[in-house]
User: Which sequence fits this backbone?
């Protein structure tokens, strides 16, 4: 009985020290624990207690409680540790946001196109969310692991300090007003659209690949008839775009509804492009056809990201130019 | 309800900001106190007698950190009793840092007093 009591009293300090040790890295664990034990004994002594006496148990408990939760005590012996530290975090956040937007764009586009083509959406939706969540978690997991490894390897955005010396306020980019009309861009857009309309409708068969068969000059049409079937649809979208851009140019400024119309036309363009890529042979040469489809896929992705940004700006217009309202506010006074 | 929440917020804010305020000063106090050799618990008591009550979980890890930064020297020793203790003393580098930080402290305290 007496032996057993002594055990519990003795082991309270032992158990505490041991538990702290469980949460310490191995490197200098023994040394830290030895000091901890020595400090605890000093504290006991100061209070006129002895670690081995039974009647002191309550006081020992009080003392240990005062000293703190073993996990927290161990944590305080270690420097702050990060999964992704503050130096790397901005880059991490950027990468996550870009990957997340592109992926979401792809999935939403796929879903929308499925809907447009009359597929049953409900069973698709369930699969969509499952697949989307899984892919997203998997991708973000890998990104996080990579950044964690960079963090552990001690890679930091150290160039920041070098940059600070060279940093020149005059080199800061100008704040762009997204509603301001960029005439040059608009005119270029219109010219290219007109050119595309003319070429694809009037001269498509004139685009030929020169060949010579047995010394006799020949030529092949470049575009496949399957693609030509889509030209009217393509032309409608281009015509709509042409009308809108001309109107905006004449009016001198973008407005909310012209932005909405632009988004709508982009959506229509995406739909046509998707159908062409998936349903038609574009070019008669198989290798070129594959190549052009890869390029078009990239264009589709860029357009989707652009479209998402456009729709976002449509709903949260203020966030793009907070300085505008600030300056207006100042002028009002 | 908003008022109650803000009262609780106030005490939490004061506590966390106060802790931040003390953290830097604590280094100065520890370096100054360790111009004479001390072991952990005696240092804590001396600081407490001087009016600086410090949590164990703050002081002892701080000693380790200062030692790893080369500001303190330490060694295990057994004096009088059978129980070993780790004794800390300021290093040559620590003394230089203490001088510089002391001057800094004077400047800050003068400036803050003038502002307050």
Assistant:
């Amino acid at each position: 009985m007496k032996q057993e009591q002594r055990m519990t009293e003795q082991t309270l300090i032992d158990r505490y020290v041991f538990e702290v040790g469980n949460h310490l890295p191995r490197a200098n664990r023994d040394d830290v624990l030895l000091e901890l034990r020595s400090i605890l004994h000093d504290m006991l002594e100061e209070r006129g207690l002895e670690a081995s006496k039974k009647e002191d148990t309550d006081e020992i408990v009080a003392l240990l409680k005062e000293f703190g939760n073993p996990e927290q005590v161990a944590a305080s012996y270690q420097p702050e540790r990060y999964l992704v530290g503050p130096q790397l975090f901005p880059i991490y956040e950027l990468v996550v946001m870009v990957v997340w937007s592109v992926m979401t764009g792809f999935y939403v586009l796929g879903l929308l196109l499925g809907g447009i083509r009359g597929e049953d959406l409900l069973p698709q939706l369930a699969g969509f969310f499952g697949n989307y969540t899984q892919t997203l978690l998997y991708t973000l997991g890998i990104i996080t692991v990579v950044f964690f490894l960079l963090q552990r390897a001690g890679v930091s955005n150290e160039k920041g300090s070098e940059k600070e010396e060279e940093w020149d306020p005059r080199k800061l980019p100008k704040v762009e007003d997204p509603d301001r009309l960029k005439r040059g861009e608009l005119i270029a857009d219109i010219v290219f659209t007109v050119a595309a309309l003319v070429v694809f409708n009037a001269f498509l068969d004139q685009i030929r690949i020169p060949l010579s068969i047995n010394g006799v000059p020949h030529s092949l049409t470049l575009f496949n008839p399957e693609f030509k079937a889509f030209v009217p649809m393509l032309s409608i979208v281009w015509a709509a775009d042409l009308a809108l851009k001309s109107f905006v140019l004449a009016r001198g400024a973008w407005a909310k509804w012209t932005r909405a119309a632009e988004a709508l036309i982009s959506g229509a363009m995406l739909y046509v492009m998707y159908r062409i890529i998936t349903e038609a042979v574009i070019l008669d040469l198989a290798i070129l056809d594959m190549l052009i489809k890869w390029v078009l896929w990239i264009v589709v992705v860029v357009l989707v990201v652009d479209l998402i940004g456009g729709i976002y700006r449509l709903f949260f217009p203020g966030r793009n130019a907070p300085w505008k309202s600030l300056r207006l506010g100042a002028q009002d006074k | 309800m908003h008022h109650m929440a803000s009262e609780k917020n106030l005490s939490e804010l004061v506590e966390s900001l106060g802790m931040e305020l003390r953290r830097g000063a604590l280094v100065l106090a520890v370096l100054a106190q360790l111009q004479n050799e001390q072991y952990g618990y005696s240092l804590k008591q001396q600081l407490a007698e001087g009016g600086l009550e410090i949590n164990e979980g703050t002081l002892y890890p701080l000693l380790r950190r200062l030692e790893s930064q080369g500001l303190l020297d330490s060694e295990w020793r057994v004096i009088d009793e059978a129980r070993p203790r780790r004794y800390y003393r300021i290093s040559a580098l620590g003394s230089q840092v203490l001088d510089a930080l002391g001057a800094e402290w004077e400047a800050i305290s003068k400036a803050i007093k003038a502002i307050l």
Remarks:
- The first strand of chain A starts at residue 208 and ends at 213.
- Chain A touches chain B at residues 32, 34-36, 38-39, 41-43, 46, 66-68, 72-73, 76-77, 79 (CB under 8 Å).
- Confidence is low (pLDDT under 50) at residues 1-6, 328-333 of chain A.
- Residues 49 and 56 of chain A are 6 Å apart (CA to CA).
